[in-house]
Amino acid sequence: MTTILRKSVLGIAGLAFAGGLAAGPLHLGDTPTIDTSPVAVVQADKPAVDKGKLIPHGVQGEQSRIDLGDEQTGNVKAIIAATKKAGMDERAAVVSIATALQESKLENLGHLGDRNDHDSQGLFQQRPSSGWGTVEQITDPEYATLAFLKGLKQVDGWQDMPLTKAAQTVQVSAYPDHYAQWETQAADLVAQHWNS
After folding, report:
1. Pick from 106, 124, 93, 53: which is nearest to 190 by CA?
2. pLDDT in tens, 133-164
3. At what angle do helices 183-193 and 70-85 cross, to 10 degrees?
4. For the chain: N or C, fewer Cβ within 10 A?
5. Rounded to an integer, what distance in angstroms lies between the CA atom of residue 27 and that of residue 23?
6. What's the DSSP call for residue 114?
7. What is the C-alpha end-to-end distance of the chain, expressed in Å?
8. pTM for the full model?
9. CA Rg, the chain, in Å?
């Protein structure tokens, strides 16, 4: 009797399964929607940048932010490439980008005529008359960044200074505290582009 009972149970289960396959899936209420929006993919071979290294001393004061165009983004990438070429780390790139954000909004500025601050030009508003290089050199993003970084390397303990003090020591600006407002955006840009 157990064999007959077992065959009956298996036969009924088989019919139920076959009937379910023939009938298709049960439809209970609304059809669920599937999210087809793009998903951000992080490439395993490109490690994330440690945000703690980018802003080790915290930010000072209110932060500013601007939208960047293609030229400005290209200049960010050029600053990062020059920083790597100089053998310096992500923090140096943050200081450089924040400085260029303050000085030129990351635009490679030529001579601005009457609006020019003496003979300042380029991303960092460097002056040929102050020994930064020729106009052609200081309006080359790689050269200008390497010149800025050379000055930064000469600042003893720049890594342990607030960004605005390190930048001001190199730039000698009439507005020494203005660099601080760009630290968050500069760090975000380095995090985004350092490993790209």
Report:
1. 93
2. 898 999 999 999 999 999 999 999 999 999 99
3. 80
4. N
5. 11
6. G
7. 72
8. 0.72
9. 30
